[in-house]
Design goal:
Helix 3 runs antiparallel to helix 7 and helix 5 packs antiparallel against helix 8. The longest helix has about 40 residues. With about 280 residues, the protein is an all-alpha fold. The protein contains eight helices and no strands. Helix content is about 75%, strand content about 0%.
Amino acid sequence: MSSNSTPYYFVPGLSRHPAMAAFGLIAFGFGMSGWVNHTSWGGPLSLVGVAWILYVLYHWFGDTIAESNAGKNGVNVDISYRWSMAWFIFSEIMFFGAFFAALFYARNIAMPWMGDVESKLLWPNFQAVWPNDGPAGLVEKFTTMGPWPIPTINTLLLLSSGVTITYAHHALVENHMKKAIIGLAATVGLGFIFLCFQGYEYYHAYHELNLKLTSGVYGSTFFMLTGFHGFHVFLGGTMLAIVLRRMIRGDFTSKHHFAFEGAAWYWHFVDVVWLGLYIAVYWM
């Protein structure tokens, strides 16, 4: 990201983007409320809201990139970007922490409670072991998802992507742009392969294991954790793909490239979350 060393804040002029984004969010909110109530207009309005928000963000980020390339962002602006990205990642840590806490609660608190003496009066044949399909007759029988082979392959893919993006970062700092582009392109490719494998894993879970989102607490926590992580891989891959396009275009220098650094921070966060998820969901 181009910037100069002048310690000041660049104050942009009046912008239409916040108001336009608000209209998109309102449309999305009303659309979702209609969708969950099975109205005919809810789904289309939600999609219109999402498309409108993406359109606004495309132009909003485009203006921000143009300001950066014009050298309008000083040191304080760069610092504010870094703190903003750090707090955003912190909020994501809390987001995933809630789901890991739900998994821990189901295994270590709710499961023993359901197996105690009083609960035996309601569910006499219930076995308080994890993974669990709940009291008999409430949930269809399913097979749990093990770590072999796809989850382990995906772990190797994400670990490899952490290496390639670190390689790209070092190359960028040393002003080896061609090597940086190759490393970043490899990272995006590995993330795409990860998503393809996860899509196949979900197909296998639904059609061969009868493991669904409705498969009790195991199914809900499995798909919520892995599904939201997959969405974050998609989001991080999209960020890296945009950064790759900008790198090819020549927007970055060896000293000013926060857009790359911010996306790399996010990608490393996605890697770390997957390691915890791989152990807690597939092994334990």
